[in-house]
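Work Package 3 (structural annotation) set out to generate three-dimensional models for the target panel prioritized at the project kickoff. During this period the team completed the workflow that converts sequence records into discrete structure tokens, so that structures can be stored uniformly alongside our sequence database. As a representative example, we reproduce one entry of 148 residues exactly as it appears in the project archive.
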Amino acid sequence: MRHKMVSTTFGRSSAHRRAMLARLVCCLIEEKRIETTLSRARAVRSLAEKMVTLARRGGLAARRKAIATLRRPPVVKTLFEQIAPQCQDRSGGYTRIIKRGARRGDNAPMAILEWVSIAPVDKKKKKPVSKTDEKKSPPKAEEKKAGD
């Protein structure tokens, strides 16, 4: 029976499930946006919002609880110093789930989980080429012959 079951087990042991959810929350904190299955996104959303609530509270005890759950002190530092201040004016609902459609291999429903008030990190963004970089390019072969 399913009485008072909060979430799914994902076919894993409780330790494995907690580690998986902690890892996904850490990735969400670092990348600001993750793509995962819909059921995992719903489970991660709950834990991520609890961590932001701890971070908003601040204090040493809250920081230690977050470290005990997420197991990565640098990520907890990012949570407390960057994400929590941006969520101070919200009373909840720090994340959003955007449905993506089905995964190609096994037809699993996919979703994007992201922070509501924080822009995601774009790693593919190229630096614009400045005019000084163009001037530093090596001279052409024709120019070398003319100068010699």
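The mean pLDDT is 88.
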